[in-house]
Amino acid sequence: MMRGNEGLFSAKVIATNKVYYDDKLRYLNVRTLDGQIGFMAHHAPIVVAVEIGVLDAQKPDGSWVHVEVGKGILQFANNRLTLLVDTLETKEEMDIRRAEEAKERAEEELRQKQSYMEYKKSQAALARALGRLEFYKKTYL
Amino acid sequence: MPTTRELRDRIGSIDNTMKITNAMYLISSTKMRKAKAELAQTEPYFYTLQSMIARVMRHLPEDYTHPFLDSREGTAEGEGKVAIICVTADKGLAGAYNHNVIKETEELLKQYKNTRLFVVGEMGRSYFHTRRIAIDETFRYTAQNPTLHRARVITRRMLELFQNREIDELHIAYTRMKSSLEMESLEEQLLPLDKLHPVFVKVPITANYEAFRIFPNPDALMENIIPDYLNGYIYSALVESFCAEQHARMTAMDSANRNGNELKQKLRIQYNRVRQAQITQEITEIAAGAKAQRAAKARKK
């Protein structure tokens, strides 16, 4: 293998409305139902169900990117990583007021009597809002 | 022979109609461009998702079952409740677009005994309404400017019905752009996704594939991707239909414009002939009158 390409893998991060990243990466970390999982080059073939949470990735030059992702699926095979998520937001795109309002609204709804479907919907909305807020407040060095 | 006034009025009214058809042509062409750009943005996601699902299916255990994948008992005999989503336009004046997709839906309705109809777009709603075919009245979505959000709301509703066993199958009838010029209306089964089931997906023996670990487990994975897949499908069906509708309207308006021009030209020729005939007649009358006067004067002298 070429020097400089060592320890890298190809990655493709696709959201429903855009292709966010399509290049080499050194490291990638996502949240799953059972906790965080990290990927480095030549990871064993795996398919992962991704949960709402922060995605951390290290580019070949050592810099980090952090984005908030929604539910999705990740596949790693032949040193290629493909991640599909329904939503993806960078810190710049994030509307913190909207997230806070969404959180309050969801909490308000959860306090009321709801049908099972409404309950699930509010719960999902709350999880999304909390994920966004947590991501926003986090400071990266 | 019509009078010049009548002809002028007719040309004027054609002009007015053409102003409308021309505007509609321009509007639908911009709308179509916008919808196509949106579709192009989601295409990478959807195609990757499809190939990924196919790959995951190959790695599922042989005897794996999941409610989203297995057809339910009795559905093969036509006993199950079948939901049909029919995507029409909100407005007419789009050639045979609405008619084709409605025909497709009616064929589906004939195939199954127990159906439930969900209609997107005002044209389809009014069609089934006048024919007294029951449609879900709470399912009210416009066909205009499809958004992911609308697709999500529809998907959620359908999944809930499916999980509550209120429906056993879900079909969608929509229109697809076959190429940039041609379109076709078609029907697709969305739930259960039995055509994706490992039993039906034949793996070539020569395919050299490595064992995948599935994390945390196949069920969680399916719960994550099947709704997304459905949502992606419904969204792209909405967008494709919208594209096709705009395209159909564009062609319809284009031919209306062309017919209008042709008609106008014919009428203008007729108008000119009538006008010319009138002038000739007036000249002959004047000339004859003058001649008669001259003759009378000469006789007096």
TrEMBL record, chain A:
Alphabetic keyword roster: ATP synthesis, Cell membrane, CF(1), Coiled coil, Hydrogen ion transport, Ion transport, Membrane, Transport
Cellular compartments annotated: Cell membrane
Domain ATP synthase epsilon subunit C-terminal: from-to ranges: 92-134
InterPro entries named in the record: ATP_F1_dsu/esu_C_sf, ATP_synth_F1_dsu/esu, ATP_synth_F1_dsu/esu_N, ATP_synth_F1_esu_C, ATPsynth_dsu/esu_N
SUPFAM superfamilies: Epsilon subunit of F1F0-ATP synthase C-terminal domain, Epsilon subunit of F1F0-ATP synthase N-terminal domain
Recorded coiled-coil stretches: 89-119
Cell membrane as UniProt keyword: yes
Pfam families linked to this entry: ATP-synt_DE, ATP-synt_DE_N
Topology versus the membrane: Peripheral membrane protein
Main location: membrane
PANTHER family according to UniProt: ATP SYNTHASE DELTA/EPSILON CHAIN, ATP SYNTHASE EPSILON CHAIN, CHLOROPLASTIC
Cited function: Produces ATP from ADP in the presence of a proton gradient across the membrane.
Protein name: ATP synthase epsilon chain
Organism: Oribacterium parvum ACB1
TrEMBL record, chain B:
NCBIfam families given in the database record: ATPsyn_F1gamma
Protein name, as recorded: ATP synthase gamma chain
Segment forming the signal sequence: none
One record GO biological process: proton motive force-driven plasma membrane ATP synthesis
GO CC annotation terms, alphabetical: plasma membrane; proton-transporting ATP synthase complex
Entry annotated with the keyword Membrane: yes
Principal subcellular localization: membrane
The entry's keywords: ATP synthesis, Cell membrane, CF(1), Hydrogen ion transport, Ion transport, Membrane, Transport
Annotated function: Produces ATP from ADP in the presence of a proton gradient across the membrane. The gamma chain is believed to be important in regulating ATPase activity and the flow of protons through the CF(0) complex.
Localization of this protein: Cell membrane; Membrane
Phylogenetic classification of the source organism: Bacteria, Bacillati, Bacillota, Clostridia, Lachnospirales
Annotated organism of origin: Oribacterium asaccharolyticum ACB7
Protein family per UniProt: Belongs to the ATPase gamma chain family.
Subunit (UniProt): F-type ATPases have 2 components, CF(1) - the catalytic core - and CF(0) - the membrane proton channel. CF(1) has five subunits: alpha(3), beta(3), gamma(1), delta(1), epsilon(1). CF(0) has three main subunits: a, b and c.
Membrane topology of this protein: Peripheral membrane protein
MF terms (GO), sorted A to Z: ATP binding; proton-transporting ATP synthase activity, rotational mechanism
